[in-house]
């Protein structure tokens, strides 16, 4: 029977959770890198044993960790991205006379076909790539060199490149999202980039409909329809049917259109999930009720999913990378909270159970389907 592996990044280490295809009983391993912030852990679609983790700390800086055995053991890689070969300086050298300082890696996106090829989104916002399993990293400078770059501003969490979507059949096309600059697309493997924010409206910036300056929280797509994109924005849930050229709002009957994660059902490209929170200043569920909302119509209408979730006195948040969806026949949905709980549903969200409680605050959740 196929199984699943959850990769959980937290404020104080990484955890690996495994189960069989029933997804009822779970084994928990960790913490790996205990005491360190682990912003993201991601597995390679081309090799289920190859994992990458972004380990960071204010004193020692950024360390990339790689596992070749499904998370049992880890090896630091990529120290030569630091200036003059010195690790822990918060610096990746970009080929210019002075190093470009950065805070951390926010997101890894491994190649769909090559376990040694991985993209990394970092803060301050930039996109890097490795083709040798993380040993060396090279910036795709066309993004930062886009003419709008000087006008980018940080969101509340920093100026982070947090979302990377790889087109399933066109290796030249990549989508990224930056807080708080907006969404961008390349059609030439990163040489040049196009802002794809038409239709977005954001209060608090000089031009609410500007080409850039929008605080996009997360993008999602289904591989069978890569030109259809879904977005959770800083206020507003949005959809594009033309690869980001234009967007329209699908917030509909949600109790609030503010939130961070958004995900798509593995087998139903019109079924999407969000976790609304009250506001940009009150990062907790409306009425203290933890509810995942599901739309089976591509965003035309939404239903609350509550069975097994706390419906009173719940004041946790779910961050942008903290939701994942598996590919088993009965689609599994998972999310982690800032209160340290990881919840899972083995029936596409109809019912939920706590997989583990009392972890450090969860920053990211990814899932792998295992043979």
Describe the structure.
The strands form eight sheets. The protein has a four-stranded antiparallel beta sheet with strand order 3-2-1-30, with no helix packed on it. The chain has a four-stranded antiparallel beta sheet with strand order 4-5-6-7, with no helix packed on it. A four-stranded antiparallel beta sheet has the order 10-11-12-13, with no helix packed on it. The termini are close together. It is 0% helix and 43% strand. A hairpin with a 7-residue loop joins strand 12 and strand 13. It is globular and about 50 Å long. The chain is built from no helices and 30 strands. It has 371 residues and is mainly beta. The protein has a single domain (3-370), classed as Methylamine Dehydrogenase, Chain H, CATH 2.130.10.
Q: What CATH architecture would you give?
A: 7 Propeller
Summarize the amount of helix as a percent range. under 10%
Radius of gyration: 19 Å
Number of strands: 30
Give, in order, the helices and strands: EEEEEEEEEEEEEEEEEEEEEEEEEEEEEE
| CATH-assigned fold name | Methylamine Dehydrogenase, Chain H
CATH class: Mainly Beta
N-to-C span = 7 Å
SS strand fraction: 35-45%
**Tally of structural domains:** 1
Number of helices, counting only DSSP H or I runs of 4 residues or more? 0
Largest sheet: 4 strands, antiparallel
- SS content category: mainly beta
Summed over residues and divided by their number, the pLDDT gives a mean of 91
């Amino acid at each position: 029977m196929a199984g699943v592996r959850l990769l959980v990044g937290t404020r104080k280490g990484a955890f690996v959770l495994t189960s069989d295809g029933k997804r009822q009983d779970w084994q928990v391993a960790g913490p790996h890198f205990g005491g360190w912030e682990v912003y993201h852990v991601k597995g390679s679609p081309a090799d289920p044993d190859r994992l990458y983790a972004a380990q960071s700390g204010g004193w020692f800086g950024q360390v990339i960790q790689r596992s070749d055995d499904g998370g049992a053991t880890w090896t630091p890689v990529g120290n030569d991205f630091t200036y003059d070969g010195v690790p822990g300086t918060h610096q990746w050298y970009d080929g210019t006379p002075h190093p470009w300082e950065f805070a951390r890696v926010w997101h890894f996106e491994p190649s769909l076909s090559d376990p040694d090829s991985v993209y990394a989104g970092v803060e301050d916002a930039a996109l890097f790539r490795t083709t040798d399993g993380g040993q060396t990293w090279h910036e795709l400078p066309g993004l930062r060199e886009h003419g709008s770059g000087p006008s980018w501003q940080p969101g509340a969490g920093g100026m982070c490149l947090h979302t990377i979507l790889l087109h399933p059949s066109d290796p030249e096309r990549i989508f990224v999202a930056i807080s708080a600059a907006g969404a961008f697309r390349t059609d030439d493997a990163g040489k040049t980039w196009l802002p794809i924010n038409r239709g977005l409206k954001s209060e608090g910036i000089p031009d609410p409909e500007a080409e850039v300056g929008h605080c996009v929280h997360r993008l999602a797509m289904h591989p069978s329809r890569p030109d259809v994109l879904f977005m959770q924005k800083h206020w507003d849930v949005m959809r594009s049917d033309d690869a980001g050229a234009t967007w329209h709002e699908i917030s509909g009957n949600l109790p609030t259109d503010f939130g961070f994660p958004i995900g798509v059902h593995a087998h139903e490209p019109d079924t999407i999930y969000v976790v609304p929170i009250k506001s940009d200043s009150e990062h907790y569920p409306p009425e203290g009720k933890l509810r995942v909302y599901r739309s089976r119509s591509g965003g035309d209408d939404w239903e609350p999913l509550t069975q097994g979730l706390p419906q009173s006195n719940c004041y946790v948040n779910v961050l942008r990378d903290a939701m994942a969806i598996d590919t088993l026949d009965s689609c599994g949905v998972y999310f982690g909270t800032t209160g340290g709980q990881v919840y899972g549903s083995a029936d596409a969200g109809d019912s939920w159970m706590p997989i583990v409680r009392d972890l450090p605050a969860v920053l990211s959740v990814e899932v792998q389907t295992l043979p």
